[in-house]
Amino acid sequence: MTAASPRFRMTTRTRVSSWATIGAAILTAGLAALPAVASRGLIQDLFFIFTMLCLAQYWNLLAGYAGLVSVGQQAFVGLGAYTLFAATILAGIEPLTAALLSGVVAAAMAVPTAFVVFRLRGAYFAIGTWVAAEVYRLVLAQVKELGGGTGTSLTMSVVSSTAGLDWVSMAFGVRTPAARDIVVYWAALALLVITLAGIYWLLRSRFGLALSSLRDSELTASSIGVDAFRLKVFVYILTAAGGGAAGALIFLQSARISPDSAFAVLDWTAYVIFIVVIGGIGTIEGPIVGAVVFYFLQTYLAAFGTWYLMLLGALGIVIMLIAPKGIWGSIADRFDLHLFPTRRRLVVTSTRRTGDDRQRARQSGPPSGQMRR
Amino acid sequence: MTAARMLSISKLGKSFGSLVVTDKLDLELGAGEALGIIGPNGAGKTTLMNLISGAIVPDTGAIRFDGRDITTDSPQRRCRAGIARTFQIPHPFGNLSVFENLLVAAAYGSGKREAEVVEACGSILDMTGLLSRANRRAETLTLLERKRLELARALATEPRLLLLDEIAGGLTEAECALLVETVRAIRTRGTAIIWIEHIVQALLAVVDRLVVLNFGRKIAEGEPRAVMSSAEVREIYLGIAA
Fold first, then answer.
1. pLDDT for res A357
2. Looking at beta carbons, which residues of chain A come within 8 Å of B199?
3. Which residues in chain B have their CB less than 8 angstroms from residue A216's CB?
4. Cβ of A370 under 8 Å from any chain B Cβ?
5. Which CATH number does the domain housing residue B170 bear?
6. Which of A58, A205, B25, B46 has the largest count of CB atoms under 10 Å?
7. Residue B35 and residue A15: Cα distance in Å, rounded?
């Protein structure tokens, strides 16, 4: 090395991403202020989108980044929901506080669950997670205090003990049920913002890079010091916590729970996978697109019942075949567009020696006599 | 060797079914030493790399690194202890950029924060001739570039022992000469090297000592040129009747 080494800098930011960050901040502020003007129906619809998008982001992190294709995430939605009902009805805890507790309990339950399902790989892992969810459903159906197999409802006293209810009623001049919708809407928006910001931060940390490396080659990843098992367990527990909190909010909003609805594989896993797949797996933007598309399909086609489900399945298969990267993935590839980029780019900041190493190699040429004996 | 023993392998054995691929192998390596390993196909060279790097666990025997028994340690633990390897068939992180391939290796292999390793990653890319490819996805690289990436990624973990598995295969003479220069530069930093290679000339330009393997056993060891001229090696390895 004769010349001074070039100096380097790393960046992830692009012009588009700077605008996207500003746009996201404005959108968040707008959504937070929305209850002042929006109808109750719109607030409920957005609540549905927010919670489904949270679940989709968790599944995307799990399957799209950590390579853990689980079909049993309803286990944690259900556990979170039941924690909320148990904590509020049996222990008299304030519902929003109980929703936080739901996240903690779901994460705690993910530890023994992981102990079992992480012994399985690939398709067996997927089936194992489903079985685990069924076990939790059957166990909770035995709990008489929470309605057993038929389920139970939140009492009026529990519902009206939700924090901030009186304030919202006064401020917006609405009755208690509408105020409750607004409070859980805000809670869901908060969970969504924390989820998106958290995942974005995670993927931009060295942890995200390690996850991506695992996805490409576990063999190589282990050879450079990445502990695959530890990373996967961490992601599994993290997504369980999020799923538990989301489940708690979903069932706080409906105020009614049963083992079948809380541990519904269709609602909390099949739809969620659909959202991720049609939107674009392995990107943050994909599930956002997917959740919006899913909302419109649900709104306009759900009345067709079974036909609607067959259409969803067919649409999912078609997308997988013609655009395996999903709607967003295809757009991102076509236009090289990344709103939330995680790609680190190396920038050579010194001009003393440029990055044109090919030219340098030609100039220096092969050292003669090296090769021949 | 007068230097302290960095790697010490004793009575190492590994079989795949009835096939013995490593047979009571003893091997020593001093700090900063460069060892070449040659042998015919199926001699157990890559298996030895896998055993040292932890990709497979031996049936018998022990491996000690810096005096510590690492025989059953996971690959990631050995990497953090200072052992890095390249793969004979390149295994890049295809969806990551070339720079990110090094970044993740540097961050996890050396346990530092990303920002602290950017400079080192850039320098390694420069040294291995990959700087102009830094921001391209690794799956877009040619085979030769992928081989260089194997070396660059291993270096990014700041190894004290570098295991090279046929990195010169398929290179032109000029490229091979550049590679030899690079490996020599790595040596001068004090990194110990075990290099498996079919291109003997490349090895001879770098290594202090040569080991010949056949059927999982060490059949010759010593000063490279002396080993290469011994009758047994010529017969077994080069197929020349003694």
1. 46
2. none
3. 92-96
4. yes
5. 3.40.50.300
6. A58
7. 50
Of A100 and B241, more confident:
A100
State how many domains chain A has: 1
Q: Is residue A197 situated within a structural domain?
A: yes
Give A336's contacts in chain B (Cβ within 8 Å): none
> What CA–CA distance (Å, rounded) separates A367 from A80?
67
Q: What is the CATH number of the domain that holds A243?
A: 1.10.3470
SS3 sequence, chain A?
Answer: CCCCCCCEEEECCCHHHHHHHHHHHHHHHHHHHHHHCCCHHHHHHHHHHHHHHHHHHHHHHHHHHCCCCCCCCHHHHHHHHHHHHHHHHHCCCCHHHHHHHHHHHHHHHHHHHHHHHCCCCHHHHHHHHHHHHHHHHHHHCCCHHHCCCCCEECCHHHHCCCCCHHHHHHHHCCCHHHHHHHHHHHHHHHHHHHHHHHHHHHHHCHHHHHHHHHHHCHHHHHHCCCCHHHHHHHHHHHHHHHHHHHHHHHHHHHCEECHHHHCCHHHHHHHHHHHHHHHCCCCCHHHHHHHHHHHHHHHHHHHHCHHHHHHHHHHHHHHHHHCCCHHHHHHHHHHCCCCCCCCCEEEECCCCCCCCHHHHHHHHCCCCCCCCC
In a domain, A349, yes or no: no
CB A159 within 8 A of CB A140: no
Total domains in chain B come to 1
Question: Token pair for residue B112?
Answer: 């530092």
Q: CA of B213, closest CA in chain A: separation in Å?
A: 23
Three-state secondary structure call for residue B48: helix
CA torsion sign for B140, A6, B115, B84 is positive
Side chain identity, residue A372: R
Size of interface A-B (CB pairs under 8 A): 162
Q: Please give the Cα distance from A119 to A128 (Å, whole number).
A: 9
Pick among A220, A333, A347 to test the B interface (most B CBs inside 10 A):
A220
**pLDDT given for residue B112 in this prediction:** 85
Give pLDDT tens digits for A201-235: 999 888 999 998 998 888 999 999 999 999 999 99
Q: Which domain holds residue A325?
A: 17-338
Asked if residue B242 is part of any domain, the answer here is no
Q: What is the ipTM of this complex?
A: 0.87
C-alpha pair distances (Å), A126 with each of A41, A61, A109, A122, A130: 36, 15, 18, 7, 7
Residue B241 lies in a domain: no
DSSP per residue, B56-122: S--SEEEEEETTEE-TT--HHHHHHHTEEE--SS----TTSBHHHHHHHHHHHHS---HHHHHHHHH
Would residue A288 count as lying in a domain?
Answer: yes
Which parts of chain B register pLDDT below 50? Answer: 1-3, 242
Residue A161: pLDDT band (50, 70, 90) is: confident
Q: Chain A residue closest to B174 (CA)?
A: A366
Of B174, B223, B176, nearest to B197 by C-alpha is B176
Closest CA to A32 of A41, A19, A43: A43
Classify burial at A277, counting beta carbons within 10 Å of its beta carbon; exposed 0-12, middle 13-18, buried 19 or more.
buried
Which amino acid makes up residue B219?
I
Q: How confident is the model at residue A362 (pLDDT cuts 50, 70, 90)?
A: very low
Domain assignment of residue A347, yes or no: no
Q: Tell me which residue range forms the domain holding B65.
A: 5-236
